[in-house]
Inverse folding.
Protein backbone atom coordinates (compact mmCIF):
# COMPACT_ATOMS: atom_id res chain seq x y z
CA UNK A 1 0.00 0.00 0.00
CA UNK A 2 1.13 3.51 -0.79
CA UNK A 3 0.58 6.20 1.83
CA UNK A 4 0.44 9.99 1.66
CA UNK A 5 3.27 11.26 3.91
CA UNK A 6 0.98 13.54 5.95
CA UNK A 7 -1.95 11.14 6.34
CA UNK A 8 -5.34 12.64 7.27
CA UNK A 9 -7.46 11.07 10.01
CA UNK A 10 -11.08 11.69 10.93
CA UNK A 11 -11.87 12.58 14.54
CA UNK A 12 -13.02 9.07 15.47
CA UNK A 13 -10.26 7.36 13.47
CA UNK A 14 -7.64 9.51 15.21
CA UNK A 15 -8.60 7.93 18.53
CA UNK A 16 -7.73 4.43 17.24
CA UNK A 17 -5.05 5.47 14.77
CA UNK A 18 -2.41 2.90 15.78
CA UNK A 19 -4.85 -0.02 15.86
CA UNK A 20 -6.35 0.89 12.48
CA UNK A 21 -2.94 1.26 10.81
CA UNK A 22 -1.69 -2.02 12.28
CA UNK A 23 -4.79 -3.87 11.10
CA UNK A 24 -4.52 -2.37 7.62
CA UNK A 25 -0.89 -3.44 7.32
CA UNK A 26 -1.65 -6.98 8.55
CA UNK A 27 -4.75 -7.22 6.33
CA UNK A 28 -7.10 -7.76 9.26
CA UNK A 29 -10.72 -6.90 8.43
CA UNK A 30 -12.23 -3.81 10.02
CA UNK A 31 -15.83 -2.75 10.20
CA UNK A 32 -16.75 0.86 9.55
CA UNK A 33 -13.28 1.98 8.40
CA UNK A 34 -13.02 3.86 5.11
CA UNK A 35 -9.96 4.94 3.16
CA UNK A 36 -9.78 8.14 1.15
CA UNK A 37 -7.53 7.49 -1.85
CA UNK A 38 -6.49 9.28 -4.98
CA UNK A 39 -9.09 8.77 -7.69
CA UNK A 40 -8.51 5.56 -9.59
CA UNK A 41 -9.93 7.00 -12.82
CA UNK A 42 -7.74 10.13 -12.81
CA UNK A 43 -10.74 12.44 -13.28
CA UNK A 44 -12.39 12.56 -9.87
CA UNK A 45 -10.84 14.09 -6.76
CA UNK A 46 -10.97 11.03 -4.50
CA UNK A 47 -12.27 7.50 -4.06
CA UNK A 48 -13.76 6.39 -0.76
CA UNK A 49 -13.02 2.70 -0.26
CA UNK A 50 -14.43 0.43 2.45
CA UNK A 51 -11.45 -1.17 4.24
CA UNK A 52 -13.13 -4.57 4.03
CA UNK A 53 -12.57 -4.52 0.27
CA UNK A 54 -8.83 -4.84 0.90
CA UNK A 55 -9.37 -8.54 1.62
CA UNK A 56 -9.53 -8.95 -2.16
CA UNK A 57 -6.00 -9.24 -3.53
CA UNK A 58 -6.82 -7.34 -6.73
CA UNK A 59 -8.23 -4.38 -4.80
CA UNK A 60 -5.28 -4.31 -2.39
CA UNK A 61 -2.74 -4.59 -5.22
CA UNK A 62 -4.32 -1.82 -7.34
CA UNK A 63 -5.25 0.57 -4.54
CA UNK A 64 -4.21 4.16 -5.29
CA UNK A 65 -2.25 6.14 -2.70
CA UNK A 66 -4.09 6.45 0.62
CA UNK A 67 -4.62 10.06 1.68
CA UNK A 68 -6.90 9.67 4.68
CA UNK A 69 -8.60 7.24 7.03
CA UNK A 70 -12.06 7.66 8.56
CA UNK A 71 -14.28 5.72 10.94
CA UNK A 72 -17.62 5.62 9.14
CA UNK A 73 -18.75 6.81 5.74
CA UNK A 74 -20.05 10.12 7.11
CA UNK A 75 -16.68 10.90 8.64
CA UNK A 76 -15.03 10.02 5.31
CA UNK A 77 -17.21 12.61 3.57
CA UNK A 78 -16.30 15.20 6.23
CA UNK A 79 -12.62 14.43 5.73
CA UNK A 80 -12.92 14.88 1.96
CA UNK A 81 -14.67 18.20 2.54
CA UNK A 82 -11.90 19.29 4.92
CA UNK A 83 -9.17 18.47 2.37
CA UNK A 84 -10.98 20.32 -0.43
CA UNK A 85 -11.56 23.37 1.80
CA UNK A 86 -7.87 23.41 2.80
CA UNK A 87 -6.98 23.34 -0.90
CA UNK A 88 -9.32 26.24 -1.67
CA UNK A 89 -8.00 28.26 1.29
CA UNK A 90 -4.38 27.63 0.33
CA UNK A 91 -4.49 27.87 -3.47
CA UNK A 92 -7.79 29.60 -4.18
CA UNK A 93 -8.87 26.60 -6.28
CA UNK A 94 -10.01 23.05 -5.54
CA UNK A 95 -6.86 21.65 -7.22
CA UNK A 96 -6.42 18.98 -4.56
CA UNK A 97 -3.65 17.07 -6.34
CA UNK A 98 -1.47 20.17 -6.53
CA UNK A 99 -2.29 21.14 -2.95
CA UNK A 100 -1.34 17.71 -1.57
CA UNK A 101 1.85 17.64 -3.66
CA UNK A 102 2.92 21.08 -2.41
CA UNK A 103 1.96 20.27 1.17
CA UNK A 104 4.06 17.09 1.20
CA UNK A 105 7.03 18.94 -0.34
CA UNK A 106 6.72 21.69 2.28
CA UNK A 107 6.63 19.08 5.04
CA UNK A 108 9.79 17.44 3.65
CA UNK A 109 11.49 20.83 3.49
CA UNK A 110 10.47 21.77 7.04
CA UNK A 111 11.84 18.47 8.32
CA UNK A 112 15.39 19.19 7.08
Amino acid sequence: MKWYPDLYFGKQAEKKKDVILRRLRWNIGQLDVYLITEASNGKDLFDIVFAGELKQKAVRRNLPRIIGIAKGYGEALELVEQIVMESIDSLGTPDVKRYLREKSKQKDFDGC
Summary: The longest strand covers residues 3-9. DSSP finds five helices and four strands in the chain. Helices lie at 11-15, 17-25, 57-61, 73-91, 96-110. Strands lie at 3-9, 33-38, 46-50, 66-71.
